[in-house]
Amino acid sequence: MISNKRSFSLAGAGLAAVFFLTSPLAQAEVVSLGEATKSVGSFLSALTQPPVPKPDPQLRYVRDALGKLKPENWIAFSPANPKAHVYVFADATCPYSRELHQKVPEFNAKGIEVRYVAWPTGQLDEPAWTIYKNIWCSDNPKQALDDAMKGKRVKVQTCSKNDISTLAAQQDAGKAVGVTATPTTYYQDGHWAQGVKRTEGLPERAILGAEIVSNRR
Predict the structure, then answer these.
(1) How many Cβ atoms are within 10 Å of 2's Cβ, its own excluded?
(2) Are residues 45 and 88 part of one domain?
(3) Would 89 be classed as within a structural domain?
(4) Is 15 part of any domain?
(5) Which parts of 161-201 fold into alpha helices (H)?
(6) Angle at alpha carbon of residue 85, lines to 122 and 186, rounded to 5°
(7) Which Gene Ontology cellular-component terms appear in the entry (predicted)?
(8) Mean pLDDT confidence for 42-50
(9) Domain identity same for 42 and 92
(10) In the predicted model, is pLDDT for residue 44 greater than 50?
């Protein structure tokens, strides 16, 4: 039922428009606009929609910091056709990192690539980094990391300056995004989850993160 009737003139156009307003507002129609008849329901509906949220600068910062990492700065456990990827800052001697590592085959089966970034405690010249030097400097870093995560001994290796710089880049990335504990998982949209329990539903969340980033391009 028509509840109100209003008219107005378009300045400078010499045209008159008559609105028959019903409830809700989005159902309003222009009955006449000069000689043309148009519906403005969609326009009025758009006016009632909430504004699009602005990008979070902190998430953008995290994405940019992780974007500086190169393939040689991580060890990837990948499915045949990845749908998304996550960065996991981990310590191969940490029981929680090892617990999360047990779920990697499940993540891979759902299309998620896991990119491990080294994050043991201490500095590069401290003992905690020795195991990672042996992992990254081995002939097969992926196998060495898998062995270390399973508690197996990793053969002592001799590292080149390039290997050390690769580890340094990982440490710099961890400091930049504020890693404080292991494991810490970062999604492509910049959100993160610390620990193991908070990664429940990781495959679905990872795919969502990838879609968010893709839609912003």
Answers:
(1) 7
(2) no
(3) yes
(4) no
(5) 161-177
(6) 40
(7) periplasmic space
(8) 44
(9) no
(10) no
At 201, which CATH number?
A: 3.40.30.10
CB 175 within 8 A of CB 169: no
96 lies in the same domain as 156: yes
Give the residue-averaged pLDDT of 181-196.
95
3-state SS, residue 8? strand
- Compute the chain's Rg from CA coordinates: 28
Residues 103 and 46 in one domain: no
* Strand 112-118 with 84-90, pairing: parallel
Q: Is the peptide bond before 183 cis (omega within 30 degrees of 0)?
A: yes
Q: What is the dihedral of CA 60, 65, 66, 70, to 10 degrees?
A: 140
On the question of pLDDT at 23 being above 70, the answer is no
Label residues 46-84 b or e (16+ Cβ within 10 Å = b): eeeeeeeeeeeeebeebbebbeebeeebbbebeeeeeeb
Backbone angles phi, psi at 119, to 5 degrees: -150, 60
Look at residue 13 and tell me if it is in a domain: no
pTM to 2 decimals?
0.73
pLDDT (tens digit per residue) in 144-171? 999 999 999 999 988 887 788 888 889 8
The label of the residue with tokens 């989850």 reads 193
- Structural domain count of the chain: 2
Mark whether 42 and 112 lie in a shared domain.
no
Coil/strand/helix, residue 190: coil
Residue at token pair 């758009």: 46
Please name which of 147, 123, 122 lies closest in space to residue 134, comparing C-alpha atoms: 147
Residues 37 and 104 in one domain: no
- Residue type (1 letter), 38: K
